[in-house]
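Thread: "does anyone have the structure for this chain?"

Original post by V.I.:
We have the sequence but no experimental structure in hand. Need at least a predicted one for the grant figures.
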Amino acid sequence: MPPQIPGNFTAAAHDLRTWHPYIVVKLALTLALILLAPAIHATPWLEPGDVRARHSVQWLADRGCLNIPANTWPIMWADLSRALNHDAPDHCRDSLAWRYLRFERDYHMTDQPRISLRAAGASREPWLRDFDDAPREKAEIGARLEMKTDHLAFGLAPTYVRDPRDGDRLRFDGSYLAGTAGNWVLGAGAIDRWWGPGWHSAALLSSNARPVPGVWLNRRRSDAPEWIGLRWLGPWNFVAFAGQLESDRFISEAKLIGARFSFRPWQHLEIGLMRTFLWGGEGQSESWSSLRNCTLGQSNVYGDTENPCDQIAGGDFRLSLPVGDNTVGFYGEVIGEDEAGFLPSQLFGTFGVDAASRLAGGEQRFFVEFTDTVAGVFSSEERLSAYEHSTFRTGNRYKGRTTGSTWESNSRVVSLGANQFFRNGSDISVTYSRAELNRVDTLRSRPPEAGVPVFDVSFAQDVDIYALRYRRPVLGGRLTLSGYHTSKEIETEARIWSRTTAMAAWEFRFD
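Reply from O.Q.:
Generated one for you, tokens below.
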């Protein structure tokens, strides 16, 4: 029996077609968009936040059904669509992964605008975040309108949150405007990113913090080079962005700039090289020459200015080995907090092993992941705190959270995770983490007194963390129930976090 298409959101939407206010709004939007272009579609990329989509992309890549860089999120649908056609090999089309991604692609790439609603809540503001799109606050409700012509894409995602720690009750995270020129996409907005192969943590750039508003450039399709001298690279992708950080930080309105180059020289091997740096802001040089020196890695001294930018750079890899109908993957991410001889130094990062299987009509994903955020832990150099800097003393953070690992600075964590993806669209995830938080027992981040409190752990603490997530189709939408429990309270600079946090979210898509 072939797998069912999971997660059908559309049944309840058909029942709502007699809801006249919705019909009026939809017709008005459609008529207005006719003036823009004859062909309209929705989101041009698959964004981070859906663990099942992440598993599906990696499954197809590991099984030879998809030959693109799979560890740079978001991923363009133009790259994914080639593997989702009906002429794909039988072993690809027979998988739940293929059918789930095709379902998502068909929803997002239709010839009409897309509207969705989302409501989420938690017993208290969550402390931990991984790849999953869990609630960020105690209560939030939002809507999203997305549409795309042949060359332009637009997304508006207003969200109202209750009593936010950072004071931003009305947010537009997830909103964007993007256009294509040849095989390139130029965009502006605030979208989540996840760079690297880790399932539970990304050392350099993740969706732990709220998305930083800015501009970006990336390839639309990761076609291999045509020049014979570079064909060995295989399919490759490049993305670069520049974002504006908040004003209530130690260096007000500093800029976060980053770039990533990833390629697949072999079907079962992916390599990524990446870098971000903090630059400019109040009281700092924002000249072209200072930006050039930071871009070239000459950041320690610029004229009479010490430390004009804070660099973090490194690379990652993933090697996958098919074993019958299953796959085993080995991955790692090594990041340098500083630079020496134009190379990253004071290293830290993430390593892991994962496995995927097909049993009892479903699909499974298991992983063991090790993360250490003490800069210098992989070398004999002096050990420092990751994500910190003597000039940009709020560090690599946005609105109080690190732009990298959810575990913050100076932590060592081992995580074990298991995911079950059912044929009916439901899925369940269980994770256990043994965490040594702030194990060097230092605290370097310094936000201003009026700034957003950071999530730095105040002193050395060892804790066990048990997390559970269950998602299933409900009333034409998707309901997600999740939560985590810690073996003790965790004290951070922001607050003391109780041992148990329960969360729920429901998303509804109009057809």
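V.I.: this helps a lot. Confidence is low (pLDDT under 50) at residues 1-41.
O.Q.: and Residues 240 and 259 are 4 Å apart (CA to CA).
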